[in-house]
Amino acid sequence: MNPPTAAATADAYDAIAVVYAQLARPDLDTVALDRAVLAAFAEVARTTGPVAELGCGPGPVTAHLRDLGLDVFGVDLSPAMIALAREAYPDLRFEVGSMDALDLADASLGGIVSWYSVIHAAPPDLPAYLAEFRRVLAPGGHLLLAFFESEGEPVTPFDHKVITAYRWPVDHLAELARAAGFVEVGRMLREPGDGERFRRGHLLMRG
Ligand SMILES: C[S@@+](CC[C@H](N)C(=O)[O-])C[C@H]1O[C@@H](n2cnc3c(N)ncnc32)[C@H](O)[C@@H]1O
Fold first, then answer.
1. What is the mean predicted confidence (pLDDT) over 51-61?
2. Number of folded domains in the chain?
3. Which keywords, in A-to-Z order, does the entry hold (predicted)?
4. Residue range of the domain that includes 160
5. Pocket of ligand 1, candidates 76, 86, 136, 158: which has the most ligand atoms within 8 Å of its Cβ, to mutate?
C-alpha cells in the first residue's frame, strides 16, 4: 500500500463526504470513553484560548467541543467536508487548509484536537505535522491526538474505508510528539467496540 498524497486524501474525502457526515455523529454519541477523553481535553483547554480541530471533517467533533464550552473552529483538507460542516453548524467557523501548513500565527492557539486526522499521513511525514502543531500552539496549550493503535505491531498500513491509513504504536507516537517539543500528560487506550476493527489510542500532550 503506497502512502496517500494530500491531493488523493482530499479527493477521497470529497467523494464520501455526504455519507461520512451521516455516520459521524452517532459514533460519538455512543462511545462513552471517547466522550470522556474529549471532556478531559475541554477541561484543560477551556481557559487557554482558541482551540482548532484539525482535520475536522463534517464538524461533529468541533460542535461537540463547542458544546463543552470551548472557543473552537475547524480546519480540513477536503472542501466538500468543509461545505457540509458550514451547512450543519452555521454558527461555527470552518476553513479549508492542511494541517502541515496552517495559515495560523505562531503560538496563536490554546489547544488542538486531531481526532483521527493524522491517520493518513505517510509515517515519515508525521514529525512535520507535529512540528506544525507545536508551532501554532501557545506554550502550556494542549494537544489531543486520537488514532488507531497497532496492538504490539510497528506502524502498519491498513485498508481504511476512505483511503490508506496507519495504525501506530502508542509509545512511538508519544515519542514523536516528545521529539516535536510536547510533554505527555496522559494516554487512554480502548478496545474496539461493535463494528470496529482496531484498538483506539488517545494521547494528551502539553506544549
Ligand atoms: C477520519 S476523518 C475524521 C474527521 C473528524 N475529525 C471526525 O472525527 O469526525 C479524517 C479527516 O482528516 C482530514 N485530513 C486528512 N489529512 C489532512 C490534512 N493534511 N490537513 C487537514 N485535514 C486533513 C480528511 O479530509 C478527513 O476529513
1. 97
2. 1
3. Methyltransferase, Transferase
4. 4-206
5. 76
